[in-house]
Amino acid sequence: MVILNGQTLTFSDVRNVLFENEKVTYSDESMKKVNASRKAVEKIVDEGKVVYGITTGFGKFSDVYIGKDDVEALQLNLIRSHACGIGEPFPEVVSRAMVLLRANALLKGFSGVRPVVIERLLDLVNAHIHPVIPQQGSLGASGDLAPLSHLALVLIGEGEVFYQGEKVDAIDALTKEGIFPISLTAKEGLALINGTQAMTAMGIVAYLEAEKLAFQSEVIASMTMEGLQGIIDAFDEEIHLARGYKEQIDVARRIRTYLADSQLTTKQGEVRVQDAYSLRCIPQVHGATWQALNYVKEKLEIEMNAATDNPLIFDDGKKVLSGGNFHGQPIAFAMDFLAIAMAELANISERRIERLVNPQLSDLPPFLSPEPGLQSGAMIMQYAAASLVSENKTLAHPASVDSIPSSANQEDHVSMGTIGSRHAYQVIQNARRVLSIEAICAMQATEYRGTDKMSQTTSQFFHKGREIASSITKDRVFSKDIEEISKWLQASSHRFDPSETKIHS
């Protein structure tokens, strides 16, 4: 059971809720804070004070006073009018993460909602009822207004949800689970949608996939080293200590460990004096990606426990302050950085693929073909990889450098962080397919060299991979192999322990 309190949610907790179906609840102490801030909201309404979002309209309408009799209608109108999401829905796991993160943010006790709002959010998580939330339509400031409005619709029994493998009306799923819709009262609609949970949820899911893929890329690269008889000296610890980047040092150490017992790698001068950069600079390039991943993880860990509502209620209502914590700029930068870093993993992987298939760059069979000329072998797999890395270069263009004013220029600078998170996720999917192509080519190359000479780690990968993609003995529809290897890398808990030569799956 994961206990939320708005302060201590970790990546491990989120992973367990998203992928291990662990249930969630709240701490009693955090709910006391929620009750205190709710009393402050009720007092503001009773006394008729002018406070943004509680007794006023929103955005450019912040100067319009809303009387006590209309505060509930105000919140309902807000949710319905702001549910302007467009396009395909977020993956179901991202929707699940959004609900979890919104509940955690409200449990900080700065938002003024009733406990029942948080209880309903947790009911959705525990019953596996996940709002259908269109991916497009958020500017990433004033929060993820459009996406989170689709989430909030479910609490009032409107909208659609993913439930038991199907897309159904929210009210049907709620009824089956015995969950009653709620009516939103003062501030609650605003508190539900004024936040960065769409970009953060997408970012967390993207990061978890990126982290796993980064580990996997190192074993795939190690297998390519064997297929190309790469020079192991370039991974000597002294080289990397001399530069000083921890992540670079760690990548070199892991690859030395993976290849420690290999008979297919070479020493300087045995076959060639130096390898091309795509082999020799694996620690430097992959290490730089790890630096970016560490930065992204740090920002997401802060944001998943952040108060991103507006206004925020402090000191039991003595202070109700309007600010801009809903602005997604920190996550927007992190998502752009994530896309760039993962695009580079794909870039260098594609260059290794080229070395595996190009007969001018190695002594392997041309395009790893069983009958060069009659059969094309892996020729077009390299084309496909090149296409994906080119697409990534477009997707990696920073979303965060753009801004378009909204709400009659009241909201005149926005982050576009949700666009950045979606692009980063797509880059990761493309990168995984590129690395899947490298894995297929590297397996073929090591088979040519002699699988009995592979290291223990790469041999384990080879034999697992061969269960999915058989040896290239004749031309076939390789698209299926690429997709199946990619699904294997994504769906399994498959990653490589940095301190061991063992594959965990």
From TrEMBL:
It is an enzyme of class 4 (lyase). Belongs to the PAL/histidase family. The keyword tRNA-binding does not apply. The modification 2,3-didehydroalanine (Ser) is found at residue 142. Its EC number is 4.3.1.3. It catalyses: L-histidine = trans-urocanate + NH4(+). SUPFAM superfamilies: L-aspartase-like (SSF48557). GO terms for cellular component: cytoplasm. It is found in: Cytoplasm. PROSITE patterns: PAL_HISTIDASE (PS00488). Transmembrane segments: none annotated. It comes from the Bacteria. This is Histidine ammonia-lyase. Contains an active site 4-methylidene-imidazol-5-one (MIO), which is formed autocatalytically by cyclization and dehydration of residues Ala-Ser-Gly. InterPro entries: Aromatic_Lyase, Fumarase/histidase_N, HutH, L-Aspartase-like, Phe/His_NH3-lyase_AS. There is a cross-link at residues 141-143 (5-imidazolinone (Ala-Gly)). Keywords: Cytoplasm, Histidine metabolism, Lyase. Pathway: Amino-acid degradation; L-histidine degradation into L-glutamate; N-formimidoyl-L-glutamate from L-histidine: step 1/3. Its main location: cytoplasm. One of its GO terms (biological process) is L-histidine catabolic process to glutamate and formate. One of its GO terms (molecular function) is histidine ammonia-lyase activity. The lineage of its organism: Bacteria, Bacillati, Bacillota, Bacilli, Bacillales.
